[in-house]
Amino acid sequence: MMMRWVGMAAALTLTACGTGDPEAWMNEGSYLGPVQVGEELVWADRTRAELVVVSPDRDALRGELKVAYQPTRENVVLLEPVPGGATVAALHGGSAPGVSLHDLDAGTRRDVRARSAFGRMTIDPDGAYVLLSHDPAAVGGEARNLNEVGLVDLRDEAAGEAEVLTLFSQPERLVFAPPFELDGQPYRLALGLSTSEINVIDLEAEHPDDRLRAIPLTVSQSDTPRSAVQVVIDTDDAPGTPESISIFVLTDVGSDITQIVVQPASSPEGGRRLALSVNQLYAGQQPVRFEVVDLPGVGRRIFAVDGARPQMTMVDVLSGESSTYELPMDVAPTGLQRFDVPGSQEDDAEPRLLVTSTRDRLVTLVRPELLTLASETPTVGRGLEAVRLQSPPLVSWFEGAAGKVVVGHEQGFSLIDLDTRRASYVSAAAPLANVARYSGGLFAVYQWGDSVVQLDVASGQTATTRIDGGTRALAVMPDKGLLVVLHDSPHGLLTLLPLDELVASRARMFDFVLLDRVLER
Fold first, then answer.
1. Phi and psi angles of residue 308, each rounded to the nearest 5 degrees, phi first
2. CB–CB of 412/426 below 8 Å?
3. What pLDDT is attached to residue 270?
4. Burial of 289 (0-12, 13-18, 19+ CB in 10 A)
5. Could you tell me the end-to-end alpha-carbon distance of the chain, in angstroms, rounded to an integer?
6. What sign for the dihedral angle of Cα 332, 338, 341, 345?
7. What pLDDT is attached to residue 428?
8. Is the Cβ–Cβ distance between 339 and 418 less than 8 Å?
9. Confidence at 271, pLDDT banded by 50, 70, 90
10. Which of 467, 395, 403 is nearest to 435 (CA)?
11. What highest taxon heads this organism's lineage (predicted)?
12. What is the rounded distance in angstroms from the CA atom of residue 49 to the CA atom of residue 72?
């Protein structure tokens, strides 16, 4: 891997040198990224078929910025980090499709061929697998089987070609289940979410009949087609049930949530080691979002909000019994989020739900343990409580240690204290465009702004640092003690600031980072 250092002088020299074909290296569309891999930033230079790896450190605040280059294959269409390490995956199209796995620490590359030019790449959050799939909207002259997916086992260093799996129907989206065990046997599953169908992929099954299973989401072909809009995979044992995991699927049609129960087959036949069963759980007239909560001494409950009216339905998963609650809101909710706050006992966590609507200043805080079914004895306490915000919420983030939720608005943001159930407002002329979390707080930039905002969530105090150039995104690098600000430039314009001294006088800007020594490469 070739390593270079780029400083302000090098960048200024580059702008004056010129070239006979400037479009070859000045085209905004020739770069993908950046993606953050550990504490490095990586771009794909599609014109020169190489990765540009930027390694900010504290020395760059006074000197030069480290930039390295790794050759990759041509026709990069996607660039994604692999969780849990220093590897970045590049998806390639064209006449030689496949995936290149770049180990940034070792400076090595492993190429995995693909039988078809896939346009999508889904990486296992556990870092063990990559699934490749087709983008049905992509235009090209190649005949494609849209039901095919490519499977890459990242742990198999010898694998030179992606395994091809042909699903029962074209997947709109692919989802990995977390690793789990049943009867002491480890399993890895993935789901292909298709129109009116769920494809269950047993990633480590040896028998072909166990590799792929299809779960219909409709009863007959005359039913209205439906697509999955939310999937929750709960790998914890459900209270009062045999050892199993559950997959909960909400679609855009109907009033039910589909529960797929996965458990070891009692008498495996035909190689099938897992038994799948399906339950339909009524979750209100028009559920649009839901959360699954295990309540000690009560059992597993689903909480679903209604998209047509300000209501929430609670469902007992084991019995199917449900109760619907009126929400203290003026319009139907559009969002539901779960937060786990510190409990009364050490290491305990208590679930909280936040119900929001992008059209309502009122939000609802929910304490699930205080809500009961009609057949249960009512509890003491307020399970639903309204909080009035300055304006409707757009997005939110949770800081568990402080027990507070940061809510972004069209202008500024609010802090909701889950303990006191009160909100405080911080005004601004624009919405938050990007947020980077760090221990005890967050950094943010405003859309169209030229400042970085530092928020201490516990105290609610903010500090603003003005930075030259429009800010686009942030990257926190705590081990290096740096905040990296990315600006609106197709050629790599970024600013470094020390985390312990976030002032403009300590900022260092680097321009044309992606074009460093471009004519020599």
1. -115, -15
2. yes
3. 55
4. buried
5. 12
6. positive
7. 87
8. yes
9. low
10. 395
11. Bacteria
12. 5
Question: Per-residue b/e over 177-204, b at no fewer than 16 CB within 10 Å?
Answer: beebebeeeebbbbbbbbebbbbbbbbe
- Dihedral (C-alpha) 448, 35, 468, 513: value to the nearest 10 degrees? -140
Which residue has better confidence, 242 or 160? 160
Report the Cα 320 to chain-centroid distance in Å: 31
Cβ within 8 Å of residue 461, ≥6 positions away: 455
Residue type, 508: R
The answer to whether the CB of 440 falls within 8 A of the CB of 406 is no
pLDDT tens per residue across span 19-60: 333 333 334 558 999 999 999 999 999 999 999 999 999 999
Cβ proximity of 348 and 342 under 8 Å: yes
134-148 average pLDDT score: 80
Residue-level pLDDT at 519: 55
pLDDT at 399: 83
What span, in angstroms and rounded, lies between the C-alpha atoms of 64 and 191?
46
Please, are residues 160 and 98 in contact by the beta-carbon 8 Å criterion? no
What pLDDT was estimated at residue 520? 61
Using alpha carbons, list the distances in angstroms from residue 485 to 173, 451, 495, 496.
Answer: 32, 10, 5, 6
Lowest mean pLDDT among 75-84, 335-344, 365-374: 335-344
CA distance 89 to 69: 15
State yes or no: pLDDT of 518 exceeds 80.
no
Token reading at 287? 């559920």
Q: Which of 224, 249, 238, 116 has its CA nearest to residue 173? A: 249
The per-residue pLDDT for range 457-487, each reduced to its tens digit, is 888 888 999 988 778 889 999 999 999 999 9
